[in-house]
Amino acid sequence: LARGHSEPPDGGWGWMIVLACFLQSALVFGVIRSFGVFFVEFMDYFGEPASATSWITSVTVALLMFASPLSSALGKRYGERPMAILGGFLSGSGFLLASFATSLTQLYLCIGLLTGVGGALIFSPSLALLAQYFSRRRALANSLAFSGAGISSLAFSPLFQFLVETYGWRGALLILAGMAFHLVPCGALLRPLDVAQSGPGEAPEPASPRKRLASLFELGLLRQRPFAVFSGAGLLITTGYFIPFAHLVPHARETGFDEYQAAFLVSVVGVADIGGRVVAGWLADCGPLRLSHNLTIWTLLTGAALFAVPLGGSYRALLAISACYGFLSSAVIPLKFSSLVEIVGTGRIMGAIGLIHLLEGTGALAGPPMSGWIRDMTGSFSASFLAAGSFLVVGGLVLMLLPRFFACQARSPEGATREVLDPTGLPRNGRREGAPCERPRGLPLA
Fold first, then answer.
1. Is 421 helix (H, G, I), strand (E, B) or coil?
2. Per-residue model confidence as pLDDT tens digits over 266-321
3. What are the helix (H) ranges across 134-258?
4. Which residues of the chain carry a pLDDT beneath 70?
5. Nearest by Cα to 115 from 21, 28, 33, 41
6. Which of 232, 222, 224, 223 is nearest to 400 (CA)?
7. How does DSSP classify residue 201?
């Protein structure tokens, strides 16, 4: 790549970044989605209940979310590539050490702590770099990158089952460690993009340690209304988003379908997930609407699909509803990160991703237990799906509170507007943006 790019190249080595992110999402989120195969083995071997065993995944997801601000700060300080390589090494080491575990506590530390922190070190820097490489095709690039989780979740469940039956859970974890170590070369693909400075100098380093810390973690974003609105909407959306993953199969069993029919619903969701990501990314990049509009529409439609789940009395109806849910929900996550660039610009995207993950981690952890409590209170999973849909619909409505959401703005052929920064990193109007080159589709920060 030539040094001093004045705009994202929208291609070139950027497609290698997409490939790296695709493999990362497959080897992190795809493994998390399919790790239930090991739970029965852990319960039988250690003689522990399901509630204790489930904490392995809970700790992993929690640390992946809550460690994201630290990952963003380290990536901003030392670069995206070193952090992603370190994250891949930690993830592989976690599974390797877990194969020698003699207690659940050791699994919490090896899989939960090491792989969770490793996943955080991988994703925030990788997504930030992806945003720097793409502008016009950003939504499509994000959709392709995140599709790795959907594709791998279809393959990993039967693969892990085969490995456990053939080599035992310890041998399967050793092989899984070898797969996870492939995250290291994926991190090596993250070649930084040198962006041309808009002025002769660079922004001065804040003087006091407190200001340097706030700048490193981008804490100033929390005081800006658009980011606060977007974060609040994201918290609501995430609270409802993960509920179907936990309760779709139990709901199908409760409705009267056997375990194979219930498990097949997950496969249907996975297949529809792959197609939905690509279609949503293509429509977002080629259509006339801003990314925030696309995110709102797909979020509201996903909520409506969850409202329809209790209506699936027959198996064919539930299959159709599950396919609709998989297709619609697949667009929410990639469009969310693409829309975030509209809010903060590429210059502050890494810190913004870390803060978003930190805030949304609360919703991701609270959603499934809360819906389980609703099921215990009502005696039916139908109420849980209604609650999940309500969170998504309310989150979509909150997105409409973003500044100029209903304004009629012409979209340039490139799908982006620019704002010239002075050497201190401030726009000419005096408000700090943080994006060194461009801010897609011109959503204001105040």
1. strand
2. 778 888 888 888 888 888 888 788 888 999 999 999 999 999 999 888 889 999 99
3. 138-180, 183-188, 209-217, 225-241, 243-255
4. 1-7, 50-51, 194-217, 407-446
5. 28
6. 232
7. S
Structural tokens at position 139:
């939504």
Q: Which residue has the tokens 């992993």?
A: 60
- DSSP for residue 413: T
Cα(390)–Cα(384) distance, integer angstroms? 10
- What is the pTM for the complete model shown? 0.72
- The pLDDT tens digits for 81-120 are 999 999 999 999 999 999 999 999 999 999 989 999 999 9
C-beta of residue 127 within 8 angstroms of C-beta of residue 83: no
CA distance 177 to 267: 25
Buried b (16+ CB within 10 A) or exposed e, 184-217: bebbebbbebebebbeeeebeeeeeeeeeebbbb
Dig out the tokens for 177 from the structure. Answer: 């460690």
Whole-number Å distance between alpha carbons of 47 and 435: 53
- Please provide the DSSP assignment of 239-297 as one string: HHHTHHHHHHHHHHHHHT--HHHHHHHHHHHHHHHHHHHHHHHHHHHHSSS-HHHHHHH
In the 8-state DSSP scheme, what is residue 115? Answer: I
The secondary structure of residue 9, as a DSSP letter, is -
CA distance 309 to 317: 9
Q: Residue type at 438?
A: E
